[in-house]
């Protein structure tokens, strides 16, 4: 249990730290850290429940995308400020490093294995963001139709 709490704290710090690196406004740092933690928790639960890298990264990216839009509307800030720091824990940096290392050492079979994993994870995260945008568009359309429908009376 202590290890899980330490991991959660480090994920939160990674979101805040990346926000500091990219000059995020200070009033957005804490929320960006919690967005990173929320996306990673979704990833963590799914990877431990089903074990699929693609689905875990997809739903983690989807969660980060949807929550970023909601936070952006609440804080009246661009959603990209919360998207990018939220993605930091999901980025396949270790696999990318191992792919480059394997290429440099001449182990091409291993390198292509790591590279395909990087592409799979990055594609899953990107697809999660695309679906998050679609969910947001549908939500806005429903809100617009609901408001428009109530104005007729």
Automatic annotation (TrEMBL):
<feature type="transmembrane region" description="Helical">
    <location>
        <begin position="112"/>
        <end position="132"/>
    </location>
</feature>
<dbReference type="InterPro" id="IPR050539">
    <property type="entry name" value="ThrE_Dicarb/AminoAcid_Exp"/>
</dbReference>
<feature type="domain" description="Threonine/Serine exporter ThrE">
    <location>
        <begin position="8"/>
        <end position="135"/>
    </location>
</feature>
<protein>
    <submittedName>
        <fullName>Membrane protein</fullName>
    </submittedName>
</protein>
<keyword id="KW-0997">Cell inner membrane</keyword>
<dbReference type="Pfam" id="PF12821">
    <property type="entry name" value="ThrE_2"/>
</dbReference>
<feature type="transmembrane region" description="Helical">
    <location>
        <begin position="6"/>
        <end position="24"/>
    </location>
</feature>
<dbReference type="InterPro" id="IPR024528">
    <property type="entry name" value="ThrE_2"/>
</dbReference>
<keyword id="KW-1133">Transmembrane helix</keyword>
<keyword id="KW-0472">Membrane</keyword>
<feature type="transmembrane region" description="Helical">
    <location>
        <begin position="81"/>
        <end position="100"/>
    </location>
</feature>
<feature type="transmembrane region" description="Helical">
    <location>
        <begin position="56"/>
        <end position="74"/>
    </location>
</feature>
<comment type="similarity">
    <text>Belongs to the ThrE exporter (TC 2.A.79) family.</text>
</comment>
<keyword id="KW-1003">Cell membrane</keyword>
<keyword id="KW-0812">Transmembrane</keyword>
